[in-house]
User: Which sequence fits this backbone?
């Protein structure tokens, strides 16, 4: 709850500072709105907290199954070839890792709340201001396959990004962000909730539609890696486009039009 | 300063004020309706409180999923526990004929029940999944006496809010709020898959709470304490779990 106050409080700080002490060049609006910047970085914090604690939890049972049940008496669909943090799990290693599940679980669920609440603030803001429609939906005249191929081609040829891309997203970027915002993140939350015994008691269809509790767990694992893949590509593309200018845009909001990184 | 920016500033300011006021109101309501978990303090307190409050509001009366008989796990995983105490071994040698479940605290009739007393009280069976926090799970049929029936027999005071339960192993105890304690699927279990509850699975008496994770299902129960606050019981955190780093509420 207090995190919400912090988000809004931080929003105030940004809005006040940007508008009073650092006039933007040519009175241009910020490259990224304050709400987008603050929710972006809170999401980064929540994501890494979830990723690290999620890995810790997986270590206690690095076996994955399809269907409703799965345990060491059941043939796994696949196993991650690492030692486990529990002696009761058979692995190829004669070694039991330190058990970090307690704080990992506390932090995993707290970070999940942070992600959900931040996502709600972002979603309400984006719907209210038209951020989704204006900045993320495929732009008019950029909806053909050729537009997408062009971005891949330019990227592979390592062509310099044109000036428009410093103030707007290209079609592939838009598609990637939409997949993450409306696909991967909702699905990772859904598959996570489908493992909660109390939540599935209240809403059994959330796990039944997936095909069982262990299927939910396995899909949760895969979607997490899909998100990691997104983050790796995202950071790589930002580095290619000019890491400093893109970071400045997402931290201070100042557009990098006409500047070289 | 441009007017648009001022309007933005004021909007955000009003939103922030509303947010702070909202948190204060939420805190008052959470206290009144018992939505704060016993381990709701510390850095992880906000997350725990949100989870517990949300699940309590969302599914006070919902039932855990039950499965067809064909889905009962052929070889359920037996989670190894600490070797039984000497007191346990003595009772086991006796066929658990002397096993007692004591009920004390905020009840009209404190006392104790033998296994035969419990079995004559009421029986319910359910085919539900045990899910461990580690990630594994299995399905079994659990047969027992609803905790609800035991509490009714003992006569719970209206101001009671929690039922603490203790294993014969001193270090193992836990508690449920009244919602979960009176829930129809919460069983003092003495049977499994049409037979007696094996010792490895918690026999002769195990708390079965299918809407929460495995670790709330404490084995070898000898005592129940009904209370209005967990503060005075052991470390005050409502369970042995928080001391070991785990959350009191395990419905996630």
Assistant:
């Amino acid at each position: 709850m207090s995190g919400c106050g912090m988000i809004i409080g931080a929003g105030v700080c940004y809005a006040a500072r940007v508008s009073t002490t650092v006039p933007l060049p040519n009175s241009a609006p910020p490259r990224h709105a304050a709400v987008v910047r603050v929710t972006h970085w809170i999401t980064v914090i929540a994501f890494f907290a979830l990723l690290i604690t999620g890995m810790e939890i997986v270590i206690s049972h690095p076996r994955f199954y399809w269907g409703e049940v799965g345990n060491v008496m059941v043939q796994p669909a696949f196993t991650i070839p690492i030692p486990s943090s529990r002696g009761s799990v058979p692995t190829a290693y004669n070694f039991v890792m330190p058990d970090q599940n307690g704080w990992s679980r506390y932090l995993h669920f707290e970070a999940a709340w942070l992600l959900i609440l931040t996502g709600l603030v972002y979603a309400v803001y984006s719907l209210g201001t038209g951020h989704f429609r204006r900045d993320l939906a495929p732009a008019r005249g950029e909806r053909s396959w050729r537009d997408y191929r062009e971005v891949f081609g330019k990227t592979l040829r390592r062509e310099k990004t044109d000036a428009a891309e410093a103030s707007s997203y290209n079609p592939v970027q838009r598609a990637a962000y939409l997949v993450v915002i409306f696909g991967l993140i909702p699905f990772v939350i859904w598959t996570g909730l489908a493992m909660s015994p109390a939540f599935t008691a209240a809403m059994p269809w959330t796990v039944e539609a997936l095909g069982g509790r262990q299927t939910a767990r396995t899909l949760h694992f895969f979607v997490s890696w899909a998100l990691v893949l997104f983050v790796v590509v995202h950071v790589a593309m930002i580095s290619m486009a000019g890491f400093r200018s893109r970071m400045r845009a997402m931290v201070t909001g100042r557009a990098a039009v006409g500047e070289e990184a | 300063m441009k007017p648009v920016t001022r309007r933005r500033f004021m909007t955000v300011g009003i939103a922030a004020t509303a947010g702070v006021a909202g948190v204060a109101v939420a805190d008052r309501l959470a206290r009144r309706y018992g939505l704060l978990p016993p381990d709701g303090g510390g850095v992880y307190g906000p997350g725990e409180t949100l989870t517990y409050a949300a699940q309590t509001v969302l599914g006070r009366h919902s039932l855990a999923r039950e499965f067809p008989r064909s889905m009962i796990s052929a070889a359920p995983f037996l989670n190894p526990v600490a070797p039984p105490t000497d007191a346990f071994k003595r009772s086991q040698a006796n066929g658990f004929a002397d096993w007692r479940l004591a009920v004390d605290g905020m009840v009209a009739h404190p006392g104790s029940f033998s296994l035969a007393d419990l079995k004559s009280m009421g029986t319910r069976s359910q085919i539900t999944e045990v899910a461990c926090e580690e990630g594994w799970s299995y399905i079994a049929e659990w047969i027992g006496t609803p905790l609800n029936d035991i509490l009714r027999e003992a006569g719970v005071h209206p101001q009671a809010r929690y039922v603490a339960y203790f294993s014969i192993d001193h270090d193992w105890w836990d508690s449920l709020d009244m919602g979960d304690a009176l829930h129809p699927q919460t069983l003092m279990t003495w049977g499994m898959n049409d037979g007696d509850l094996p010792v490895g699975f918690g026999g002769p008496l195990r708390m079965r709470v299918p809407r929460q994770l495995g670790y709330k299902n404490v084995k070898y129960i000898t005592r129940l304490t009904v209370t209005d606050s967990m503060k005075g019981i052991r470390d005050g955190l409502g369970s042995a779990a928080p001391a070991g780093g785990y959350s009191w509420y395990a419905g996630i």
Remarks:
- The mean pLDDT of chain B is 92.
- Strands of chain B lie at 100-105, 111-114, 124-131, 137-146, 162-167, 173-177, 187-192, 195-196, 206-208, 221-227.
- Chain B has one domain: 67-244.
